[in-house]
């Protein structure tokens, strides 16, 4: 019994604790670096769904997202952006920007059934987003122009097709 | 050259690592912000350089309570940050006093207002023509936008830089104000309170 306690006292607890602390610090630093790069510089996003066909696959594509341009306000007409959905803040959706503030956008109200179109002027600080596949997309035609602050990143590259063709 | 770099590197590394930790903490846990302007007085006074603690845990699930003081990006200018009180959650019916209309907050949106009801130079006053038009067209979002755009071109639409009350998507929220932390004589909790009789919750 006392031998057990003697062996317990002989273990170098201090240096073990020092090692454990420095490794935990390293892991914490790595996590913080990954978080900062992912949220503020550049990130990868897995996007799926029919609303951006043919640009983005139905089954999903891994896309590279540029966070810096969106924060600096350098999003323009024609860019595909990642944004927080105005109907559910827990969802992030990918759509194409078709109108910046002050632009006048003409769109088809119900493309499957009629030819009627409407024209709106995008208000200050807002953007007009639409999916490329207008027959199967919930976008500004339903929920109106969205504030620019909802845009979290600009998509600039598709990564998954590079991976598939490389092998 | 190499010696100067070797001398400065530990300090540079310390600053970079500290910056990473600080940024991650500010994104996940809490950060400090200051108030400018009078739209939230007397709760938060901009003239005394008050600093508030903004907690970010509410952003994990967008779980807000009616009456919280929130920090959000302005829908009119994404570079501007507003501090307002969240009055109504999605699905609630709210009475907008200046338009005499009753509106239901759509899914994913909320209604925010400044506490300073006496500050009359704000965008609640659209101007004499659009007051009546917007009351009639309260349900139609796109036509509302078109009317406002047309009136702003004619110079009849009055906008101000600090908006007093507006309906915004919840995705614009950046955090919730829980305490005032500076100056020391003003350290206190920021409580939830609600204006009487304007909300009917779902």
From TrEMBL, chain A:
Top-level taxon in the UniProt lineage: Eukaryota
Active site residues according to the UniProt entry: 51, 95
Location of the protein in the cell: Mitochondrion inner membrane
GO cellular component: mitochondrial inner membrane peptidase complex
GO molecular function, one term: serine-type endopeptidase activity
Record's subunit section: Heterodimer of 2 subunits, IMP1A/B and IMP12.
GO biological process: protein processing involved in protein targeting to mitochondrion; signal peptide processing
The entry's keywords: Hydrolase, Membrane, Mitochondrion, Mitochondrion inner membrane
Protein name per UniProt: Peptidase S26 domain-containing protein
Record domain Peptidase S26: where: 25-107, 117-158
One family name in Pfam for this protein: Peptidase_S26
Function as written in the Swiss-Prot or TrEMBL entry: Catalyzes the removal of transit peptides required for the targeting of proteins from the mitochondrial matrix, across the inner membrane, into the inter-membrane space.
Family: Belongs to the peptidase S26 family. IMP1 subfamily.
Keyword Nucleotide-binding attributed: no
Annotated Gene3D superfamilies: Umud Fragment, subunit A
TrEMBL record, chain B:
Membrane topology (UniProt): Single-pass membrane protein
The UniProt record lists the keyword Hydrolase: yes
Family from the record: Belongs to the peptidase S26 family. IMP2 subfamily.
Any single GO BP term: signal peptide processing
Catalytic residues, chain numbering: 39, 84
CDD domains: S26_SPase_I
Pfam families: Peptidase_S26 (PF10502)
Identification of the protein by name: Mitochondrial inner membrane protease subunit 2
Main location: mitochondrion
Signal peptide: 1-26
Gene3D superfamilies: Umud Fragment, subunit A (2.10.109.10)
Superkingdom of this protein's organism: Eukaryota
Keyword line: Hydrolase, Membrane, Mitochondrion, Mitochondrion inner membrane, Signal
GO molecular function: serine-type endopeptidase activity
């Amino acid at each position: 019994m006392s031998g057990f306690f003697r062996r317990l006292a002989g273990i170098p607890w201090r240096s073990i604790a020092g090692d454990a602390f420095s490794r935990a610090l390293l892991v914490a630093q790595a996590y913080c670096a990954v978080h900062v790069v992912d949220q503020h510089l550049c990130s990868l996003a897995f996007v799926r769904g029919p609303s951006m066909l043919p640009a983005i696959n139905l089954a999903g594509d891994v896309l590279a997202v540029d966070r810096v341009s969106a924060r600096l306000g350098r999003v323009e007409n024609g860019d595909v952006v990642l944004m927080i959905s105005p109907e559910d803040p827990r969802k992030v959706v990918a759509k194409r920007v078709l109108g910046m503030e002050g632009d006048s956008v003409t769109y088809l109200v119900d493309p499957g059934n009629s030819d009627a179109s409407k024209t709106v002027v995008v208000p200050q600080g807002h953007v007009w987003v639409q999916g490329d596949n207008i027959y199967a997309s919930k976008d500004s035609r339903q929920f109106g122009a969205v504030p620019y602050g909802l845009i979290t990143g600009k998509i600039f590259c598709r990564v998954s097709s590079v991976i598939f063709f490389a092998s | 050259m190499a010696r100067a770099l070797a001398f400065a590197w530990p300090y540079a590394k310390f600053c970079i690592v500290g910056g990473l930790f600080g940024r991650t903490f500010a994104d996940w846990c809490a950060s400090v912000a200051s108030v400018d302007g009078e739209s939230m007085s007397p709760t938060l006074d901009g003239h005394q350089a008050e600093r508030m603690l903004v907690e970010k845990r509410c952003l994990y699930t967008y779980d807000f309570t009616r009456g919280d003081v929130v920090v959000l990006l302005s829908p009119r200018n994404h570079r501007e940050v507003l501090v307002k009180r969240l009055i109504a959650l999605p699905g609630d019916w709210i009475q907008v006093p200046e338009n005499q209309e009753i509106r239901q907050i759509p899914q994913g949106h909320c209604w925010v207002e400044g506490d300073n009801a006496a500050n009359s130079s704000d965008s609640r006053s659209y101007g004499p023509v659009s007051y009546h038009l917007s009351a009639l067209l309260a349900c139609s979002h796109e036509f509302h936008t078109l009317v406002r755009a047309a009136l702003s071109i004619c110079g009849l639409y009055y906008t101000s830089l600090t908006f007093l009350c507006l309906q915004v998507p919840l995705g614009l929220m950046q955090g919730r104000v829980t305490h005032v932390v500076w100056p020391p004589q003003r350290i206190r909790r920021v409580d939830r309170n609600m204006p009487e009789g304007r909300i009917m919750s779902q």
